[in-house]
Design brief:
By secondary structure, this protein is of the alpha+beta class. The protein is built from 2 helices and 5 strands, in the order βαβαβββ.
Length: about 90
């Protein structure tokens, strides 16, 4: 059975960017996927990111959102781990 999917762009910062070596990813997810699933997928692909699981904040289209916010096709997602100042 066909499940509709959405395509999102994920902007990577700090540890996420270091893990992937690129500034952004384009990913597909099933419809009605919460933004927290993006983080979980990246951590599944790069387990060294798991230290950031509980402290990562989420943004969709430049607005901070709750982890259970549902993604829409074309959304731009940012995952923001803590950044050490200097």
């Amino acid at each position: 059975m066909y499940k509709p999917t959405i395509k999102i762009t994920v902007k990577l910062f700090a540890a996420y960017q270091e893990a992937y070596g690129v500034p952004e990813l384009v990913l597909e997810f099933p419809e009605n996927t919460p933004v927290v699933a993006v983080r979980d997928r990246l951590i599944a692909e790069h387990p060294e990111l798991s230290q950031w699981r509980d402290v990562t904040r989420f943004g969709i289209n430049l607005i901070f959102v709750e982890p259970n916010t549902i993604l829409q096709d074309g959304d731009e997602v940012v995952l923001i781990p803590p950044v050490s100042g200097g």
